[in-house]
Automatic annotation (TrEMBL):
Catalytic activity: O-phospho-L-homoserine + H2O = L-threonine + phosphate
Gene expressing this chain: thrC
Protein name as it appears in the record: Threonine synthase
Gene3D superfamilies referenced in this protein's UniProt entry, alphabetically: 3.40.50.1100, Threonine synthase, N-terminal domain (3.90.1380.10)
Organism of provenance: Pseudopedobacter beijingensis
EC number of this enzyme: 4.2.3.1
Sorted UniProt keywords: Amino-acid biosynthesis, Lyase, Pyridoxal phosphate, Threonine biosynthesis
Cross-referenced InterPro entries: Ser/Thr_deHydtase_PyrdxlP-BS, Thr_synth_N, Thr_synth_N_sf, Thr_synthase-like, Threonine_Synthase, TrpB-like_PALP, TrpB-like_PALP_sf
Family matches, as PROSITE patterns: DEHYDRATASE_SER_THR
């Protein structure tokens, strides 16, 4: 696979370069130069295939010049080694549960695939790598658990102080070994700015082979296509159309689904549900993209004021807003709506949604209220995290959920984070002072 920059379509780098650079020097984002179209017969047969088999079809179509079929199969099987079940909520609404991996969030797909891709290339090249990752909560846990004890890789995670839940913090800070966590006195946007600046810093790049594990890394996006395709496969014999509703922050998850669609996955509509950080809904309404400082919400993994991956979505549609809006819409909900939705679904269905997932539910309610529902269409709402990652919300709402045993174990581990300011000079001094 060759990739260009969203800022320069003449650029052409190979997959390995894009994975380790993470960002092109012009600060655009890498996108595949060419998206192969899957055979309709292959897709028609997906109802007879497993998640892992469908995943391989997609990954191989993209990466067949970069990794042998046998090696890729092993990587895919290891990365997607947990299920992504569809739970019916209504006759035409299905929850796609993406929280059955080690960090209990959808980012495990990306974290596990990326770590194995990197380690595959590292084995060939004998490189040592330093990964810098900014997290608003869930990325860090998925990356930490994805990379834990992978030889030749050290991971530095930056997270905003006081803005992640206790369980998220425990997942980030209790790993030790090759994983270190910095607690930044600032917002997620400050963390992301520190990481972005580090990649452009000459001194740091001389000392380290820096790379990023954020959702801007192309190897994080590829595995996120898998579960869209798998859901389609499970529903395609019952419904004519599928609409995906994705709780969105940095817009990497939904971008992956949209790439799969460009590769032939039949999808009627993509709906990006956001919290009060409504940059993209505002853009669709006004035609002007205005980044803002993020505001804190109950769905904190979506507290993003300048969603990086949205340029990838625009790029997929030739930066043509009219074309984009034929297949894509976006809608925002505030904290009080999120809470109401959680309570309603719990009372009516006995199903517990995390606050992120609740935005997707609300988007479907809005669709139905607008009369957009048809009997032929299934709505798939992506459930991006397990509710237990947000204990404060459920305590307030007086809803009890089951805690997975992996979480119980975390409480007995020691937190090992180090404090950091939001100033780049401090971060740089710290990194240069390390071995
Ligand atoms: C990261 C995350 C999101 C947002 O995903 P993007 O790819 O950044 O849009 C939504 N929900 C949860 C639980 C997350 O961790």
């Amino acid at each position: 696979m060759k990739l260009y920059s969203t800022k320069n379509h003449n650029l052409s780098v190979d997959f390995e370069t894009a994975v380790f650079n993470s960002l092109p020097a012009d600060k655009g984002l890498y996108m595949p130069t060419f998206l192969p179209l899957l055979d309709t017969e292959v897709i028609a047969n997906w109802d007879k295939k497993s998640l892992q088999e469908i995943a391989f079809d997609l990954a191989y179509a993209l990466l067949k010049d970069d990794i042998t079929a046998e090696e890729l199969k092993a990587i895919v099987d290891e990365a997607a080694n947990f299920e992504a079940p569809l739970v019916p909520l209504d006759k035409d609404v299905f929850v796609l549960e993406l929280f059955h991996g080690p960090s209990l969030a959808f980012k495990d797909f990306g974290g596990r695939f990326m770590s194995r891709i990197m380690s595959h290339f590292l084995k060939k090249e004998h490189k040592e790598i330093r990964i810098l990752v900014a997290t608003s909560g869930d990325t860090g846990g998925a990356v930490a658990l994805g990379f834990l004890n992978v030889p030749g890789i050290k991971v530095t995670i930056l997270y905003p102080k006081g803005k992640v839940s206790l369980i998220q913090e425990l997942q980030l800070t209790t790993n030790g070994n090759n994983i270190e966590a910095l607690e930044v006195d600032g917002t997620f946007d400050d963390c992301q700015a520190l990481v972005k600046q580090a990649f452009l810093d000459k001194d740091l790049n001389e000392k380290y082979n820096l790379t990023s594990a954020n959702s801007i890394n192309i190897s994080r996006l590829i595995p996120q296509m898998f579960y869209y395709a798998n859901s389609y496969a499970r529903l395609k014999n019952q419904f004519k159309d599928v609409t995906f509703v994705t709780p969105s922050g940095n817009f990497g998850n939904i971008a992956a689904g949209m790439i799969a669609h460009k590769m032939g996955l039949p999808v009627k509509q993509f709906i990006a549900a956001t919290n009060s950080n409504d940059i993209v809904p505002q853009y669709l309404t006004t035609g002007v993209y205005t980044a803002r400082p993020s505001v804190q919400t109950l769905a904190n993994a979506m507290d993003v004021g300048d969603p990086s991956n949205f340029v990838r979505i625009l790029d997929l549609y030739g930066n043509d807003k009219v074309e984009l809006e034929r297949e894509f819409s976006s809608i925002a909900f505030d904290d009080s709506q999120i809470k109401q939705a959680i309570v309603k679904v719990y009372q009516e269905k006995g199903y517990i949604m995390c606050p992120h997932t609740a935005t997707a539910y609300l988007a479907i309610e809005a669709e139905k209220a607008a009369g957009n529902q048809t009997a032929e269409n299934a709505y798939v709402m992506l459930s991006t995290a397990h509710p237990c990652k947000f204990p404060d919300v459920f305590e307030e709402l007086n809803i009890a959920y089951e805690i997975p045993s992996s979480v119980d174990e975390l409480y007995h581990k020691e937190r090992q984070q180090k404090p950091m300011t939001k100033h780049f000079e401090d971060f740089k001094t710290y990194l240069l002072g390390e071995g």
